[in-house]
């Protein structure tokens, strides 16, 4: 049995928090990225596939947002700029589908969902500075 108490990431020092987030992002980068084809198959064949795909899209959105914020905090140009505009997890599916509809000729089925979401965020939340 562990004697370590759970630690809130919000209460950690900024350097510790950054190291933990970097480790989580690194592990996430090693994980398999879902392709557009796999997303469509999941939605079509699984009982709760549409819900699972929605959760995946929210995770991709949140991961890209954190990566962009990390770039900004490090003094580099972020991937996209939300600023005072609204960006909520519930918007993930519409951003993804809108990007696929607008640029259908640009994507192949084996391309990663992250690419589509990243392009959607970059076109919807352009950095003006």
Task: Describe this structure as you would to a colleague.
This protein is mostly helical. The protein starts with 13 loop residues before the first helix and ends in a 5-residue tail after the last helix. The chain contains 5 helices and no strands.
In brief, what are we looking at here?
By secondary structure, the protein is mostly helical. Helix content is 58%, strand content 0%. The N terminus is likely disordered.
* Strand fraction: under 5%
Question: Secondary-structure element order, as H and E?
Answer: HHHHH
Rg to the nearest angstrom?
A: 17 Å
Shape category: globular
Q: How many helical stretches?
A: 5
- Uncertain runs with pLDDT below 50, 5 residues or more? 1-12
Helix content: 55-70%
Distance between the termini: 52 Å
Give me the count of strands: 0
Q: Characterize the main sheet.
A: none
Topology:
Elements: H1 14-30, H2 36-45, H3 49-73, H4 92-102, H5 113-124
Helix pairs in contact: 2-3, 3-5, 4-5
Keywords:
single chain; 129 residues; mainly alpha; 5 helices; globular
């Amino acid at each position: 049995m562990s004697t370590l108490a759970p630690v809130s990431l919000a209460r950690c020092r900024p350097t510790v928090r950054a190291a933990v987030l970097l480790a989580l992002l690194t592990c996430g980068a090693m994980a398999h990225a879902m392709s557009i084809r796999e997303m469509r198959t999941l939605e079509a064949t699984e009982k709760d596939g549409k819900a699972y795909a929605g959760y995946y899209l929210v995770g991709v959105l949140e991961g890209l947002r954190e990566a962009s914020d990390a770039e900004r905090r490090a003094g580099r140009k972020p991937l996209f700029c939300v600023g005072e505009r609204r960006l909520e997890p519930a918007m993930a599916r519409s951003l993804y589908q809108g990007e696929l509809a607008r640029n259908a000729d640009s994507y192949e089925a084996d391309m990663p969902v992250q690419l589509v979401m990243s392009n959607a965020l970059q076109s919807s939340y352009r950095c003006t500075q």
